[in-house]
Amino acid sequence: MKTLSIAEQLKSLSALEAEMPREIRGQAHVLPRMLSVLRRGQLGLKKPGRPRGTFLLLGPTGTGKTESTLVFTRRLFGDEALIRLDMSEYQTQGSLGVLIGSQPGECGYLGMERQRLTEGTLLLDEIEKAHPRVLDICLQLLDAARVTLANGKTLDFSPFYVALTSNLGSAEILGLQHSSAATLERHVLSRAQQALRPEMFARIDETLVFHPLNYEVQLEIAEKFLCAELAFLRDRGHALEAGEAVLPFLVRKGFHPKLGARPMRNAVEKLVGDAVAKNLLGGCDGSGTLAVVEEREELAVVLESTALHSSAI
Hints:
Elements: H1 6-23, H2 31-42, E1 53-58, H3 65-77, E2 82-86, H4 95-100, H5 108-115, E3 120-125, H6 132-144, E4 146-148, E5 154-156, E6 160-166, H7 170-173, H8 181-195, H9 198-202, E7 206-209, H10 215-234, E8 240-243, H11 246-254, H12 264-281, E9 288-293, E10 298-302, E11 310-311
Parallel strand pairs: 1-6, 1-7, 2-3, 3-6, 8-9
Antiparallel strand pairs: 4-5, 8-11, 9-10
Helix pairs in contact: 1-2, 1-3, 10-11, 10-12, 11-12
């Protein structure tokens, strides 16, 4: 992976600043702070011997924590430049050997993943579930951007961003949805500070609290995925527009109180894809207007767009 020039870095950062608000909805309060860290990291303004940038991303599931990390990694480094570790798989002391090797000569999963990349992002999901010995490794990464494997080799993670995610306090937030944003943030930060080591917070560049998604944002996310699906189908010769009841129906089917918008993409692809498939099997061409068939809780492709008060998407 070649090192980009300053001009190329500036171009990538400019594209990222335009892309993040399109991809991550309802979290405008955290994006400028995230982008600030990324600018400094990409332009070489970070102190030597530390990761390019470090984030602790807090808040409910399905609100954009992991997705924001995927977006900036893809834009800055490419689709493959992510090392993603689910910390729920590293809850025992024995799991440390899986991560960094347990016998002389072993490099562990972290070593194998680091070998394939020169730069990128290390994403540690649900950090609160990691065993204390595994957390020791995380603290080394955050502080000195280095970790020593069982084979004696020291890995350098200074060309990487390190992002930690946690759902701490999320369950209680469901009962505080009518509280102010400041109250929600204080609650989540308090829970995180109780559960995570103080030294971890001292080594994080930005601790960002993602908010629960209100109904208007849920509609925006449904529209984003619907637009992508309609564009995909248009490229395959199926010209579709959506009736006015489609977006609320997709929110009803694709948003979950505990999972947030995480199921939305699959719900859109399934419901729209099923509608087009049935239309094709019925001898039609898979083009027309998407309408909600309430009695069957599904979408259908129909021809009478004006009668259904459709609105183009």
